[in-house]
Amino acid sequence: MRITILGCSPSFQNAGGHCSGYLVRRGDTSLLVDCGHGSLGSLRSVLDIRQLTAIVLSHMHADHFFDLVPLRYAYRFGGEPESKTPLWLPPGGAAVLDSLTAPLDLDEAFFSGTFCIREYNPARSLTIGGVELRFAHAKHFIPAYAMRLSPVDDPAQALFFSSDTAPTPDVQALAAGASVALVEATQLHEKAGIQPGHLTGDLAGSLASVAKVGRLVLTHYMEDSGDDLLKQAGSAFQGPVELARELETYQV
Ligand SMILES: [Zn+2]
Ligand SMILES: [Zn+2]
Fold first, then answer.
1. Contact 148/181 with Cβ under 8 angstroms?
2. Ligand 2: distance of its center to the CA of 157 in Å?
3. Burial of 56 by CB count in 10 Å (0-12 exposed, 13-18 middle, 19+ buried)?
4. What is the C-alpha separation between 232 and 220, in angstroms, rounded?
5. Ion ligand 2 residues within 5 Å by Cβ
6. What pLDDT, on the 0 to 100 scale, is given for residue 107?
7. Separation of 145 CA from ligand 2 center, angstroms?
8. Residue 213: which residues within 8 A CB-CB, separation 6 or more?
9. Is this prediction's pTM over 0.70?
10. Structural domain boundaries in the chain
11. What is the DSSP letter of 220?
């Protein structure tokens, strides 16, 4: 299984960067995890978008799904796939897309005409092609789900993706023993007076250390904090740790 980073910026793009998007590939299965602003351009540089097996969103914050709009146009005007691309949303996600349809276009089928829209049940696993996904409820400002992705034929291999989250036991447990952990590191310090919803470099490193993951990759970070986040994470996790870089591919 391989993961290619399409966007690793936080809620706004780093200079020349893109927001959350990750392409996970296993054999013929090509899974787009999150589709934040700018990630479509990265995706198109590594994959014919008609080859996408499915899209799965961690949560309905703009930086994780706004490029569904240009992706819809790309399919509509650049060539539709043979069948509608499955779009797996968190519970409640379909209502969010519905609420956007009227302001965006007169076409009530703006999204549903292009994507086969479904909501996953985070309490159950989801198999898409050759990849099985499991979920855990993140601690964030809106409902959000961390994911663990494994090849169906090699469940010992696992990619963990934190989504956006503060520390929480379910997410911590989901990361256990993952070969590669893609963990958000949005801030250098927890913000006083604000309900926790993100990780620092320290907390990302601590999560990786407790979970005993093979490799920690920090994502969802501000470029100018990158070096300090890396130091924080490295002081809490003794294994290999690095900053996600766009268009870099990691073997899981
Ligand atoms: Zn985010
Ligand atoms: Zn978020």
1. no
2. 27
3. buried
4. 15
5. 61, 164
6. 86
7. 10
8. 160, 175, 177, 178, 179, 180, 181, 239
9. yes
10. 2-244
11. S
Tell me: the pLDDT tens digits for 19-58?
A: 999 999 999 999 999 999 999 999 999 999 999 999 999 9
Both tokens assigned to 169: 């036991």
* Nearest alpha carbon to residue 91 among 131, 159, 137, 132: 137
| Residue 57, both tokens | 């969103």
The residue count for the chain: 252
How far is it, in rounded angstroms, from Cα 123 to Cα 87?
18
Q: Which residues contact 108 (CB under 8 A, 6 or more apart)?
A: 101, 102
Overall average pLDDT of the 62-85 stretch:
96
pLDDT band of 105, cuts 50, 70, 90: confident
- E strand residue ranges, the chain: 2-7, 21-26, 29-35, 54-56, 85-89, 115-119, 126-128, 131-137, 145-151, 159-161, 180-184, 215-219, 241-243, 249-251
Q: Does the structure show a pLDDT above 90 at 163?
A: yes
- Tens digit of pLDDT for each residue in 170-205? 999 999 999 999 999 999 998 887 889 999 999 999
Helix axes 226-236, 201-211, angle to 10 degrees: 30
The CATH architecture annotation of domain 2-244 reads 4-Layer Sandwich (3.60)
- Name the DSSP class of 50: G
Shortest-distance ligand to the CA of residue 64:
1
| Cβ atoms of residues 105 and 114 within 8 Å | no
Separation of 165 CA from ligand 1 center, angstroms?
A: 9
pLDDT at 98 > cutoff 90: yes
